[in-house]
Automatic annotation (TrEMBL):
<comment type="similarity">
    <text>Belongs to the UDP-glucose/GDP-mannose dehydrogenase family.</text>
</comment>
<dbReference type="InterPro" id="IPR028357">
    <property type="entry name" value="UDPglc_DH_bac"/>
</dbReference>
<dbReference type="Pfam" id="PF00984">
    <property type="entry name" value="UDPG_MGDP_dh"/>
</dbReference>
<protein>
    <recommendedName>
        <fullName>UDP-glucose 6-dehydrogenase</fullName>
        <ecNumber>1.1.1.22</ecNumber>
    </recommendedName>
</protein>
<dbReference type="Pfam" id="PF03720">
    <property type="entry name" value="UDPG_MGDP_dh_C"/>
</dbReference>
<keyword id="KW-0520">NAD</keyword>
<dbReference type="InterPro" id="IPR036291">
    <property type="entry name" value="NAD(P)-bd_dom_sf"/>
</dbReference>
<dbReference type="InterPro" id="IPR008927">
    <property type="entry name" value="6-PGluconate_DH-like_C_sf"/>
</dbReference>
<dbReference type="InterPro" id="IPR036220">
    <property type="entry name" value="UDP-Glc/GDP-Man_DH_C_sf"/>
</dbReference>
<feature type="domain" description="UDP-glucose/GDP-mannose dehydrogenase C-terminal">
    <location>
        <begin position="336"/>
        <end position="440"/>
    </location>
</feature>
<keyword id="KW-0560">Oxidoreductase</keyword>
<dbReference type="GO" id="GO:0016491">
    <property type="term" value="F:oxidoreductase activity"/>
</dbReference>
<dbReference type="InterPro" id="IPR014027">
    <property type="entry name" value="UDP-Glc/GDP-Man_DH_C"/>
</dbReference>
<dbReference type="InterPro" id="IPR014026">
    <property type="entry name" value="UDP-Glc/GDP-Man_DH_dimer"/>
</dbReference>
<dbReference type="Pfam" id="PF03721">
    <property type="entry name" value="UDPG_MGDP_dh_N"/>
</dbReference>
<dbReference type="InterPro" id="IPR017476">
    <property type="entry name" value="UDP-Glc/GDP-Man"/>
</dbReference>
<comment type="pathway">
    <text>Nucleotide-sugar biosynthesis; UDP-alpha-D-glucuronate biosynthesis; UDP-alpha-D-glucuronate from UDP-alpha-D-glucose: step 1/1.</text>
</comment>
Length: 472
């Protein structure tokens, strides 16, 4: 580990925590800082604040060896050469990113400086943030030669975050001079020259197609735009397939076949073509809005992004109407809802389409029995149990006596339900699947009426196919 770098990561959320343990994993010395004292205490006691595969093992491996946790920002800054800023950049009231957390951290860093440091934007930020960070440092009295600002956007996904960080397709370094770019090259060398992958204790089984990762050095502005443009493009792909799914459904075509047929073209690729309830999570909705705002500020009308957002919002309404169309009226109906997190393999409920739907169903008078393998604690904190909402211990308990079962999140276990048992539990064998986890013919064979996204509805003989209903 001769080329170990002293790193401070500010923020111990998804990105900060994963970055901190992964930097330790590739041989660096890391101090992770958070102003949430309770979180730091929990981490120092061996607790894991988020549900993320491999994170508990990585924390156990590196706690107090490669990584230490503290709420003392000055200590972290003064003992590091590179300072990664990984605090939240939530959506502000105009759609723009709220950079107040970043600004607060930068002014604290300025007051703690004790020699040359590289400040690294790990948070997702709008173009020109690097200039604002520099300006803020200078305003707080730091000399120009004492620091550089680099943009190093993060592309990890929740649920596969550790694998994504250690085996990325690419590492983007937006630096406006060689000195700072060189430090980032040193930090990422084990991933970009492949030496990490050949180590005996390297995390196995998650090698990306790009191994070792490509390290791309650009200007800071370009790197900032690469991040926003990448998220916006992925959101666009999802909205595109969702728009096609609505057409497919009307003409009795099958969106799964259509996506497969499109994805076989290597120029299109099969990923991010899963139709469903629309994208959610803490990033796509806010980043699409922020990127639209960035363009607007520069006098560019990026209307396409507004359409991406509208299609996404519409997708949920379409599903809601499908539920209503299948059940006639909702008031007093009991619905089993499987899934609360914004996607499978995470307990994150931020901007979750599943949770939004549960809310809408309750508002429409339905009684919901919900189940999620990981997100119930977080969901209960903002949607407490009530006359109309209960939380079940498993999918079958949720289904007991329900008029229909709704699949709202793509947890793998929801695609492997015991269909015979489920059939016995439900009052009516109706499954409305917002994630296309089953084949329609298979569901009909098991006696279910099965409605999904972008595929012909499948009805059993007993249930009969109703005429197309117009739902207002
Ligand atoms: N969540 C994700 O999967 C990804 C997020 N990003 C970006 O990374 C950034 C962080 O996102 P998350 O990790 O999800 O955020 P988060 O909200 O989970 O975590 C942010 C952390 O920063 C801490 N913090 C806030 N102000 C602080 C201060 N003054 N000093 C010390 N700590 C402070 C908070 O206590 C919190 O623990 C955002 O810009 C996001 O867009 C980028 C890629 C993936
Ligand atoms: O900037 C970020 O925070 C991150 O945002 C996304 O990662 P994440 O939000 O964790 O989750 P995704 O797997 O991208 O899913 C986002 C949403 O899109 C939905 N989705 C995804 C793929 C798909 O084909 N269809 C679809 O509806 C998911 O259900 C989910 O609601 C990006 O994939 C990451 O590269 C990026 O770093």
């Amino acid at each position: 580990m001769s080329d170990s770098v002293s790193i401070c990561v500010i923020g111990s959320g998804y990105v900060g925590l994963v970055a901190a343990v992964c930097f330790a994993e590739i041989g660096h010395k890391v101090i992770c800082v958070d102003n949430n004292e309770a979180k730091i205490k929990m981490l120092n006691e061996g607790g894991v604040p988020i549900y993320e595969q491999h994170l508990p093992d990585m924390l156990a491996k590196h706690l107090n060896r490669g990584v230490e946790f503290t709420s003392d920002l000055a200590y972290g800054v003064q003992n590091s050469d590179a300072i990664f800023i990984a605090v939240g950049t939530p959506q502000g009231s105009t759609g723009s990113a709220d950079l107040s957390y970043v600004e607060a951290v930068v002014s604290e860093i300025a007051h703690a400086m004790n020699g040359y440091k590289v400040l690294v934007e790990k948070s997702t930020v709008p173009v020109y943030t690097n200039e604002w960070v520099s300006r803020c440092m200078l305003r707080h009295g730091v000399e120009p030669g004492e620091f550089d600002v680099v943009s190093n956007p993060e592309f990890l996904r929740e649920g596969t975050a550790i694998g994504d960080f250690l085996h990325p397709d690419r590492i983007v370094v937006g630096a406006n001079n060689d000195r700072s770019a060189e430090l980032l090259r040193r930090i990422y060398a084990p991933l970009s020259n492949g030496s990490y992958y050949t180590r005996e204790d390297a995390l196995p089984g998650m090698l990306s197609e790009h191994n070792p990762a490509t390290l791309l050095v650009t200007s800071a502005q370009s790197a900032e735009i690469i991040k926003h443009a990448s998220n916006a493009f992925l959101a666009l792909k999802i909205s595109f397939i969702n728009a096609v799914s609505n057409l497919a459904e009307v003409v009795d075509a099958d969106i799964e076949d259509i996506a497969a047929g499109m994805g076989l073209d290597s120029r299109i690729g099969p990923k991010f073509l899963r139709a469903g309830l629309g994208y959610g999570g803490s990033c796509f909705p806010k980043d699409v809005a922020a990127f639209y705002w960035v363009a607007q500020q520069q006098g560019i009308n990026f209307q396409l992004l507004e359409e991406v957002r509208k299609i996404n919002a519409n997708q949920q309404d379409i599903f809601f109407n499908k539920v209503r169309g299948a059940l006639w009226t909702l008031r007093g109906k009991k619905l089993a809802a499987l899934g609360l997190s914004f996607k499978g393999d995470t307990d994150d409920i931020r901007e979750s389409p599943a949770l939004d739907l549960v809310r809408k169903l309750i508002d429409a008078g339905a009684n919901v029995s919900a189940y999620d393998p990981a997100a119930m604690e977080k969901a209960e904190a903002i949607l407490p149990p009530s006359d109309q909402l209960s939380y079940a211990f498993n999918a079958y308990e949720a289904a007991e006596g329900a008029d229909a079962l709704l699949i709202l999140t793509d947890w793998k276990e929801f695609g492997r339900l015991d269909l015979q048992r489920l059939h016995q539990m439900l009052k009516f064998p109706i499954v409305i699947d917002g994630r296309n986890l089953y084949k329609p013919a298979h569901m009909v064979e098991h006696g279910f009426t099965y409605l999904s996204v972008g595929r012909p509805a499948a009805y059993t003989a007993q249930q009969g196919k109703p005429r197309k209903l117009v739902v207002s």
